[in-house]
What we know:
The complex is a heterodimer. By secondary structure, chain A is of the alpha+beta class. In chain A, 58% of the residues lie in helices and 13% in strands. Chain A has 13 helices and 10 strands. Chain A has a 5-stranded antiparallel sheet. A 3-stranded antiparallel sheet of chain A has the order 8-10-9, covered by helices on one side. In chain A, α2 (26-56) packs antiparallel against α3 and α7 runs antiparallel to α8 (220-246). The radius of gyration of chain A is 37 Å and the shape is elongated. Chain B has 2 domains: 59-178 and 318-387, D-Maltodextrin-Binding Protein, domain 2 (3-Layer(aba) Sandwich), CATH 3.40.190; 180-314 and 389-432, D-Maltodextrin-Binding Protein, domain 2 (3-Layer(aba) Sandwich), CATH 3.40.190. In chain B, the strands form 3 sheets. In chain B, strands 1, 2, 3, 6, 12, 13 and 14 form a 7-stranded mixed sheet that branches. In chain B, strands 9-8-10-7-11 form a 5-stranded mixed sheet. A two-stranded antiparallel sheet of chain B has the order 4-5. Chain B is globular and about 80 Å long. Chain B starts with a helix and ends with a helix. The model of chain B is unreliable at 1-14 and 38-52 (pLDDT under 50).
Amino acid sequence: MPDSMPLPLNYLWDELLKVSIIFQRPVVQRQFLAVILTTLLAWSISRWIWSQLRQRYPQLNIDEDCNQRLEWKQYGLTVIQYLSTPTLVLGAGSIVTLLFQQWGWFAGYLTDSLNVIAFFLLYRLCVGALFIFLPISFVKRLRVLFLGPLFFVCIICYTLSWFFDLRQLAQVNVLTLFGESILLKPLFISILGLYFWNMGVFLFEDLLLRIFQGQGFPNPRIRHVVSLLLRYFLIGLGMVLIFGYVGVSPTAVAAISGGFSVGLGFGLKEVISNFVSGIWLLFEGALKPGDIIKINGDISQVVRLGVRATMVQVVKDNSEEIIPNQIFFTQNVSTLTGSNNLVFLSLVVGADYDCSPPKVIEVLLSVAHDHPQVLEMPPPSAFALNFGDSSIDYELKFCIADPLIFKVVTSELICAVWQAFADHEIEIPYPQRDLHIRDGGLQVSSPPH
Amino acid sequence: MHRLSDHVLNLSLLRKIISLSAVRITGIVLCLVGLFCLTACSFQLRIQPEPEQNEPLQGQILLWIELPSTETEGQTGSIQQVVQSSLEGFKELYPQVKVFVETFPFRQIQTPLQSQIQRGAGPDLVGVRANPELIGIIKTGLLRMVDETDLRASQFRTEALKNIRYQGKNYGLPLFLTTQVLCYNKTKVETLPNTLEELIQQARQGYSVGLISGFLETYWGVGSFGGKSFENQDTFNNQQWRAWSQWLAWLKEAQNEPNFILSDNVSTLRQSFLNGQLAYLGCRSDWLSDFSQVLDKETLGVTLLPGQSNQPASPILETGIIAFSQASSTKQHQLALRLAQFLTNAEQQKRIEAAIPFIPSNKLVKINPQLFPIRATLQDQAKQALAIPLDEMEQSEVVVERGNSLYQQVLAGEISVNKAEAEIKATVQQEFGLEG
């Protein structure tokens, strides 16, 4: 049968019935029973060995989360934990297969099962080897999101090939959409291909960021922009490649896009606008993670730049806010960390008329110089502002490098100025009110009884 | 401290759980081992006695069919139609039996058959040509023997039975036979050639003759020179290979005739005949279902291959057999056996024969030559054909391979026919362990 000829959905049902014929055979039942028993037996032996080892070496914690890198003993234990079960199953399975062959029993499925276990052992060896070279948290993510599912899919396909002709199975017409047959193979490739491609891209991006970080890449903004743009480029490329390989019908695409064009125009307008704004922001570089901005009247720190939205952390209450990217193009946003992180602050204080202004200025400057957070460059400065009602007012201007700590620095400086003034007997006057009571007395009347 | 104590507590709990699970699992495993032993002991590969006759047969079985060598769409379609029709007849008798059919291209069934039966999967019965590869499957014990009572050998042709017997045991039921005949175009031919001389005369007169080139493909001419058998059962057949060398000499001369085409390009020869460019074509009997779809009754004619006086042509006879998987359950084998018996009974063979040109393996099938001249010719040709017994097929394969090489060398003029004869004799002696 040619590959391009679609098969009806009931072909699947017929194939399942054929498989049921095979499973009615004692020679097949016996093999699968042997596989299950051997696996269970080997697994329980492996667990027992493992429990014995845990009792013998209780001090060794092989919990991967606890250690960035495993010690060699820990690594040995991990290897035993990872490889003991498949190795024992493989050994026991080989013995059972040999016995089957010796007795002249059918052992084809047993041999196939050994291949699966050998493949599983190889998979675990590979994952174990990755733990040596790559960060544990990354390998764990890699295993859970990519390698594990990939291994699972391969095993499923291999197992299915025992019972089905996969080339024919791939030609089963699952449904007809816009007059086009949707076959099992393109559907399978589309779903799994997209999943594995996207996961691969995310993990690659993760690895890339770790490498950048490890190499001490100086500019986090460039690091972030490169990884983000690479991610979306690769995802787009993957989609084009996968749909191109699958051969998505242009007619169907035209029909779908035609039908949804109005919906796209209205419903997804904001999304597209945000997306374009996000790309623009990334290229422009106006914002980067860690920037301190003033938006909606609050000072916030940029946590993450996304293509659709930007996440900021509001300093006031530590809440996180997701701001659509187009806001940055339609509203005025002040950034405190645009070209540099310097923040200029000032402190106004009054001093007694009896004190010499140069002395007060000197004291103020010394307080500023003594504070560790106040930058030496640009240097702090102090000015006498005006003759007030009860004091001469002075202003201390200083500069700090971190906008998020301005309240702390200001508070500490106020305390330091008060203390310095006290030490130098400089009085901080405050308006005083004298109450004068006039003559004539106050008439007090008692209530009638 | 609190966290540490929690951790210790969790660890001890974990150990308890592990040890408890291990005990439980070991218990379960031991139970399952016992169950397995009981089950394993109860499984028997031998065929159980048939159930009571009043018990209706029911179940599902899997049938694999090897398609003919040419495998054109029309031929495949007509074979599938015949199979379907036969299965419907079977279903009328046994309504609770469902048969699933899978078809495989010619000579592409052996590998999946072997690998699937080794697993215990694959078909319950398989319609396949008897060939050397089948012997490999028989030797590995993957095909089930059929006893004489199930075979009912008396109803089959003797030649057909040679292709199901291996080392004295039967490994299936013969389903059909194929051989070679001479096809001709009725609109072009006036007188049919009875002898090789007449054939070459007609070629000289302008009637184009196409013959398939090759050792086995041209072996039919050996009979015309006195070679009667391909078999070398007990003693070395000297006359047979003398006849082969004479036949080779005849072919070498004949190929120089302008209207005599000796070619190994089967598809071109077939197409030329269907297009009316060839008056005669040495064709295989299983091509006729395909030919009859293209050429009408007034155009397609079939006659015996030409021989010489009292020495008819002796084409090779191939047998399509139904073999049974050793992996099938007792019940499945009973159903498969019943289906095979149904397909090989005289009535059903007559029905199949009526649908497509076909040489029945059942000798009780009688054909009226007036009503069905092509089918009658096929039967007549089959009577003179030579079967290669399954027992000798492996050795014969080596002989055929060597024969092919010598055949090509003789026709190319590289060696003499006498040298080719000597060499093929040496090969036969070596393979069959015979003395000259």
